[in-house]
Specification:
- This protein is an alpha/beta fold.
- It folds into four domains: 113 residues, NAD(P)-binding Rossmann-like Domain (Rossmann fold, 3-Layer(aba) Sandwich), CATH 3.40.50.720; 181 residues, NAD(P)-binding Rossmann-like Domain (Rossmann fold), CATH 3.40.50; 136 residues, 2-Layer Sandwich (60s Ribosomal Protein L30, Chain: A), CATH 3.30.1330.90; 71 residues, ACT domain (Alpha-Beta Plaits, 2-Layer Sandwich).
- The protein has 18 helices and 22 strands.
- Strands 8-7-6-9-10-11-12 form a seven-stranded parallel β-sheet, with helices on both faces.
- Strand 20 and strand 21 form a beta hairpin.
- It is globular.
Length: 530
């Protein structure tokens, strides 16, 4: 196998491949794009960091490429979809720098609390001042960790060694995982209200972008300290600047920014603020981390050569072709069920049960289980979850996964049922195939009958005359057109479950108006990617 290395990668990490006689390595750094496009067709694998764009134009020239190895977590520079379409596997190294990022979070926090940067600059300038640099201890302070994943968990353990009281908000982990770390699981409002220090360790996605803004700062303690070594943009930077200037935040330590390098006036002013301790995205920048990520991707290349499973593939791996062809529609059904229930269920799942009924149960349903699991976990994990690593991610989150098969079924020739157990109860969703397309036939204990669409609105309320009309009027006033509606109920005047498909998303204000006007028990939007 011929491997090209296009970015600076730890030499000791590459030694695994250099020692294997089946592998030929060419280290060709900082090649001009045109030259890289000319030579990439000669290689079976490419190892990169963030400096090389593995985009469609490059992949179109990569006629022999079989694997893209990103020596790090982020894959923003890799067109994963284009690689998948060409049968090229993309792997990354999501674990190699977790310790480095956790230690950097504590390093920034300690530097901020003990005024290390300004005291260092003062002493080097020739001054001998002590009083201006009086600091704060961490002991007995409450640390709020948002996101108890790989990095957040390590930060929590290290903070406890400083005798801090640690609480965490993470709606996608089980209570057991929090107990394993010896921390208390709370909701976001309680974390904001109780924490002396708040640190974030979540991925940056639609849910977390700007999740800590003006409204959240208002709920925090006066004089709170904030830390961000995760991703730029989780803290709203304009709101952060305001909170620093009005004294709500006594100090902040950031390693990451929404713009890298900074461009806007807001980000530059934030970096220059005297209450900020800042670094230029150094969380993973240790010799050990760089070696670890290089070793991890080199091992994945060797796993590929030896036809062993890949632990950190970020695109869909291949199953047995015959089984894949038969299972493909059911994989879409399982994925849709997982996607749907993940957006509706209460937080902190403890157990997921996949039940396969009917003719489907005669086959190995493992691909369906991991497909549904991956779809569900992708809403809550800080790494890309796929058919290879879904079970591992669930185990790390403290979630039990069970698969049950039975050839007996009452109403459908094939039925997939997904049950989710949480501290506040059990949620169930079931589906089948109708003309080859997913159809949801049960939610909780309501019979339903609808095909999932891109935009949906799910409501639960006490059934009374005129409520459907009210909902339609509110949606119409908001400019939202209803495509379809499905009503499920068990008795007249009892609880009703209604699912609308709409031509466009229903915004938060409209949801709140519906909830208030019909006294809804539950209102939630669901988006299914098409």
């Amino acid at each position: 196998m011929k491997v090209i290395v296009t970015d600076e990668v730890s030499e000791s990490g590459l030694q695994l491949l250099k020692d294997d006689p089946r592998v030929e390595i060419d280290v060709r750094l900082k090649l001009p794009v045109e030259q890289l496009h000319q030579v990439i067709g000669d290689y079976d694998a490419i190892i990169t960091r963030s400096g090389t764009q593995v985009d469609l134009p490059l992949l179109q020239q990569a006629h022999n490429l079989k694997i893209v190895a990103r020596a790090g977590v982020g894959i923003d520079n890799v067109d994963v979809d284009a690689a998948s379409q060409r049968g090229i596997i993309v792997v990354n190294a999501p674990f190699g720098n977790t310790n480095s990022a956790a230690e950097h979070s504590l390093a920034l926090l300690l530097s901020l609390c003990r005024n290390v940067p300004v005291a260092n600059a003062s002493l080097k300038s020739g001054a001998w001042e002590r009083a201006p640099f009086t600091g704060h201890e961490l002991k007995q302070k409450t640390l709020g960790v948002i996101g108890l994943g790989k990095v957040g968990g390590r930060v929590a353990l290290r903070a406890k060694a400083f005798e801090m009281n640690v609480i965490t908000y993470d709606p996608y982990i089980s209570e057991k995982r929090a107990e394993d770390f010896g921390v208390k699981l709370v909701d976001l409002d309680d974390l904001l209200r109780l924490s002396d220090v708040i640190t974030v360790h979540t991925p940056l996605n639609q849910e977390t972008r700007g999740m800590l803004g003006n409204e959240q700062f208002e709920r925090m303690k006066q004089g709170v300290i904030i830390v961000n070594c995760a991703r730029g943009g989780i803290f709203d930077e304009a709101a952060t600047l305001t909170a620093l200037e009005n004294g709500k935040v006594t100090g902040a330590a950031f390693d990451v920014w929404s713009e890298e390098p900074p461009q806007s006036d807001v980000v530059r002013r934030l970096i220059e603020h005297p209450k900020m301790v800042v670094t230029p995205h150094l969380g993973a920048n240790t010799f050990e981390a760089q070696k670890n990520v290089a070793v991890d991707v080199c091992r994945e290349i060797l796993n590929y050569i030896d036809s062993r499973p890949l632990s950190n593939a970020v695109n869909i791996p291949r199953f047995d072709p015959d089984l894949m062809e038969h299972m493909k529609p059911f994989m879409l059904l399982s994925s849709t069920l997982g996607d749907f229930i993940s957006q509706l269920a209460p937080p902190n799942p403890k157990k997921m049960t996949f039940t396969y009924s009917g003719k489907l149960a005669r086959f190995d349903c493992t691909p369906l289980t991991v497909c549904g699991l991956a779809s569900l976990l992708n809403h809550c994990s800080d790494q890309e979850v796929n058919l290879v690593n879904a079970s591992l991610v669930a185990r790390e989150m403290g979630i039990d996964v069970e698969a049950v098969r039975t050839t007996e079924t009452e109403s459908y020739s094939n039925l997939i049922t997904l049950s989710l157990e949480t501290p506040t109860g059990r949620r169930t969703i079931a589906g089948t195939l109708f003309e080859g397309k997913p159809k949801i036939v049960k939610m909780r204990n309501f019979d339903t009958d609808f095909c999932p669409e891109a935009h949906m609105l799910v409501l639960s309320y006490q059934d009374r005359p005129g409520l459907i009309g009210k909902i339609g009027t509110i949606l119409g006033d908001a400019g939202v057109n209803i495509g379809n509606m499905n009503l499920g109920r068990r008795e007249k005047g009892g609880e009703a479950l209604v699912v609308f498909s709409t031509d466009s998303p229903v915004d938060e204000t409209t949801q709140q108006k519906i909830a208030a006007d019909i006294e809804a028990d539950f209102v939630k939007t669901v988006h299914i990617a098409k």
